[in-house]
Amino acid sequence: MDSDEVDSIQLQTLHPYHPGKILSIKEAFVTLTIYLEPKVHYLTEKSIEVLRTHTTPYTSQIMTIAKPHLEKVQVVLEPYTKNVRHGFKKLVESTKVYHR
């Protein structure tokens, strides 16, 4: 490469973009978006469907295993939940008064 070629390349890269180039890039992006949108929706729906079919048995197994433990925790925490409920009611009432 001689210096003239380097200068022309530098001028091309430093030359400001023409509005026509930006519009054509924008149009190409819009076209690509319009083309890809239904395909992305289809793939997303199929992925969620497959995910649900594969995870449903495991979710039910986890719930079956965890249910007795959660019931024990609920019994142990019962005295504390009354205080929490009372505090939450007070909070709700005070926000109702504040936002009138």
From TrEMBL:
It comes from the Eukaryota. This is BnaC04g12020D protein.
